[in-house]
Structures are given as structure tokens and as C-alpha cells.
Amino acid sequence: HYFGRKMDASDFEWVMWFTTFRNHILFALSGHVIFAKICSMVSPKNRSLIYMLYGSLAVLITMGWTYITLILSHCIILYSVALVKRKWLCFVAGLTSLATFKMEPFNTWQEGFVTGSFDLQDVLFYGGCGFSIMRCMSFALENCEKKDGNYSFIDLIKYNFYLPFFFFGPVMTFDRFHEQVSPVLRESNNFRTLEMWNITIHALVHLGAILVVDVFFHFLYILTIPSDLKLLKQLSDWSLAGLAYSNLVYDWVKSAVMFGVINTVSRLDHLDPPQPPKCITMLYVFAETHFDRGINDWLCKYVYDYIGENHDAIFKELLATICTFSVTTLWLGPCELVYIWSFFNCFGLNFELWVAKFFSLPPFSTIERNLMSEAMSRRIRGLFNAVNFWQIILYNVLALNSLGFAQLVTKRLLLKGFPLSTLSVLFVTYCGVQLIKERERRQSVLKTQDVFKCE
Asked: Which membrane topology term applies here (predicted)?
């Protein structure tokens, strides 16, 4: 209770991280920092092995020997497949292993091996297993690219049992992790005063964000209100639009804070982890929409960019997006809501390319090139981006909240609220998109100037 007000406890992840199991998580991460730092100072050449030993011991104490045996069995299977050096076989084996943790009856059967019962067991079980399979697949695919010989099994275990990433992610691809935990530390990774200062600032920013969100949860019930459809029907169109937007902003803040806490710990270990996701307010294209940059980087590297290549060909892009969202659906856990979410986001990503291709044809391309200034072209593109922005919100709010809430917002903004509410919301969004595009243009100009100065 803050000031006599109850907290909105609808988000299980936030409550788990910063209320119920806050002390347990802090204890485990603090232990990693202290133990790893002392041991790596004594033997810096063996720091990756020390991280693995501490992580394995923590998982063993937390979940038991049957759980760690289950994880190791999947690691052994996928390592054996990696030795064949066939990418398609690595994908088949990896996705099959992932499916055993996402689909009945295999997930219940494997969960039965883990004895004991505590409140966080289900979350740790499925989190650790899911991320382990994704890491094993990354290892296997990178081993296929290795021309001389194979990576060792101990390399896979070091990679998988790095504690800060083990249960909750983010996923760092094997090539990046292997390079950054190499025995020889680059001079740029030495802890200078400025680097430690930057890490401290990031930690304080995340602490401040946690406190602000925690206080807001006692006054703004943005997660609980969407579950009450009777109340939602009494709200104005603007209130519903703001509520949908706030839900996505909160989910971005949650992802940025939770991954930020883990990233701060990993940066103390000389790693450069995946950055927090891009703020939802800054998004107006589907290609940049994600809430977990680690999984997004994994999907782009091994599926989306691999199949789609330069993303100019319509059919290649369609195949790349279908494969990407098929893997994403399996990762999230197949169910009706995930199917709907995947379909609409897959459609949105392809629709962007179709529209871009259509307007790149004459006479549109000729008119833009000869008759329009750069500013006018940017304004017209902003109209499409404003519509795209609300597509991103509506397609993703159904996964974050409920299908009923997404349907209600869509009906009110597109049907009942047309034309006044629809056009006014789009106008405000258009102004916001223009501000973002102008900011991006200025940043691009500054980067270009810096390049010329360096040359």
C-alpha cells in the first residue's frame, strides 16, 4: 500500500520480479557478481568456466538434480546433431525439442521429473528450458558455420549455464557470447572509471524506473481496467485509445527494466548484452517492432534475414515472415490468441513491403522524385506511418491484454467513433510521427557529419 492505495497486481512478471521474489532474485544475481568477480580476478583466463560453475550450482540448488539432468540431456542431443553440420537438421532437432516444452502431453511429462513444489517453480522450469533450447540451437547453427573442426561440448555448457541469462534471458547468440568471454580481455573491456560510471548510471536509472512504475501501479490501474468490459464500454473513445497505448508503453517499460537489470550484471562481467527494445512511442514500422531484442536478434540472424536476404523480393519476404512467426508461435506457446497475434503481425510486416513496392512504381516514384521536396515526401509518408502505428498497437494489445479489449478498441476507433474520433486520434499520431521522423533525420545528419570528420 502506498498512501492507502492498493497496487495493481495484474502483471505476474512485475509482481514476481519486484515484490514476491525480489529478494531471491537479488540474492542470486548478487552472489553471481561477488563470486564471479573474486574468482575472475584470481584467474581471469578461466572466468567463463567460473561463470558456468556458479550458474550450474545455482540451478542445481534451486531446481534439483533431475532438472539439470533434463537440461543436459537436451544439450547432449542438440550437440550431437550440431556435429553433423546440417542447418536443416539442427532446426528440426531444435524446434522438436522446443515443442516438447510447449505442447501437451510432452511438457507435463517432462515437468513431472522435477520434484518439489514452490511458487516460482513453473516459471523457472519453462523459462530455463525454453531459453536453453534457443541457446542450443544458436550453438548448433554457429557450429555449422565453423569451417575448421567443431566447438566443444564444454563451450556449449559455458554458454548455456551463464546464470544471469539462464532463466529469464535475454538470448545472446553463441558467436557473440563466445567471443566476449574469451580468456584474453580486450583493452576496451578493461574497467576504466568512465565505464564503471556508465554502468552505475544505468543501474540508478533502472532503479528509478522501478520505483516510478511501482508508484504508478497504485494510482493508474491500466492493466486491471481492460479486464472489465462493462467499465470499458462506458469510457470515451479517447480514453480507450489512451488505455491501449498505455498498455504497450508499460510492456516496453517492463521489458526494458527487467532486461536492464540483467544487462547491468552482465556488463560487470565484460559482456555486451542485447540492448533493451526500442520504445513503442518511436515505432511506426512493423520491421522494428519487438519487446525482446535478444529473441528478435536470434530470429533475424537465423530465420528472417537468412531467408529474406535483402527483404526486397515479395515472395522471399513472405516466406521469411511466415517462417519467423511460425518459430515465434512455437516459442510463445501455440494457442488461439498467439495464432491471431502471429497472423496479424505477419500480415502487417508483408503489407508494409507491398505498399512500398506499389508506390515505388511509376507514376508515383516519378512524382516523388521530380515534384516533391524531401520534407513533403516525409509528410506524406507520415500519413501512412500514423495508420501503421495504430495497427501495431491494435495487433499487439490483443496479446498483452485480451482479444475482447482489442476488438472493443478497434470498433470504437474505426466504426462508432468515425469520423471525429478516428481522424482526431490519427491527427495527433501523425504529429507525433513527424516529430520522431524529424529527430531521426537530425540524428542521421549528425552521424554523416561525424563520418566526414573522421575521414
From this structure: Multi-pass membrane protein
How many Å from the N-terminal Cα to the C-terminal Cα in the chain?
Answer: 58
d(CA 445, CA 192): 31
Cis (ω within 30 of 0) for the bond into 170? yes
Assess contact for 64 and 115: CB atoms under 8 A: yes
DSSP 27: H
Cα 167 to the chain's mean position, in Å? Answer: 14
Q: Residue 2 forms beta bridges with which residues?
A: 5
Check residue 46 and give left, alpha or beta (phi > 0: left; psi -120 to 50: alpha): alpha
Q: Are 79 and 156 in contact (CB under 8 A)?
A: yes
What is the full DSSP assignment across 267-303?
HHTT--PPPPPPPGGG--SGGG--S-HHHHHHHIIII
Which of 12-26, 97-111, 249-263, 412-426 is least confident?
12-26
The predicted structure's pLDDT at residue 188: 47
Question: What is the sign, positive or negative, of the torsion defined by CA atoms of 68, 177, 324, 280?
Answer: positive
User: What is this structure's pTM?
Assistant: 0.90
Instruction: Output the CA angle 395-406-335, nearest 5 degrees.
Output: 70
Q: Tell me what the mean pLDDT of segment 201-228 comes to.
A: 87
Cα–Cα distance measured from residue 78 to residue 93, given in angstroms and rounded to the nearest whole number: 7
Question: At 187, is the pLDDT very low, low, confident or very high (cuts 50, 70, 90)?
Answer: very low
Q: Phi and psi dihedrals of 5, rounded to 5?
A: -110, 140
Angstrom CA distances, 430 to 284, 384, 388, stand at 10, 9, 10
**Other CB atoms within 10 Å distance of the CB of residue 148:** 4
Cell of 278: 526500442
Q: What's the per-residue H, E or C state across 384-420? A: HHHHHHHHHHHHHHHHHCCHHHHHHHHHHHHHHCCCH
Measure the CA–CA gap between 342 and 339, rounded to whole angstroms. Answer: 5
Highest mean pLDDT out of 101-115, 172-186, 189-203: 101-115
Which region among 13-27, 73-87, 377-391, 413-427 has the lowest average model confidence (pLDDT)?
13-27
Q: What is the pLDDT of residues 258-271, one digit of tens each?
A: 888 899 888 888 88
**Is residue 186's pLDDT more than 50?**
no
Distance from C-alpha of 240 to C-alpha of 413, rounded to nearest angstrom? 9
Question: Cβ of 56: how many Cβ atoms within 10 Å?
Answer: 19
SS3 10: coil
Average pLDDT over residues 313-336: 92
At 277-309, the pLDDT tens digits run: 888 888 888 888 887 889 999 999 999 999 988
